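User: Just a sanity check before I run the rest of the batch. Below are the structure tokens for the first item. I only need the designed sequence back.
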């Protein structure tokens, strides 16, 4: 593998990546589905608010220092 890989297709066709994926029992279509889910979050799956929002709410409720 070299530093010039720039697309997902190139990455998923790299022989070394394919060997590691095979060893881990991961299929290329699983990687594609995972990346698609991350790229377009579902309205059914609530997102986690950013850390600064959680910290602010936590401090207001005196749940954290």
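Assistant: Here's the designed sequence for the first item:
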């Amino acid at each position: 593998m070299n530093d010039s890989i720039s697309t997902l297709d190139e990455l998923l066709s790299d022989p070394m990546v394919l060997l590691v994926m095979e060893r881990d029992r991961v299929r290329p279509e699983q990687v594609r589905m995972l990346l698609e889910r991350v790229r377009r979050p579902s309205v059914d799956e609530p997102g986690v608010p950013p850390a600064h929002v959680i910290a602010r709410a936590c401090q207001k409720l005196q749940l954290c220092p």
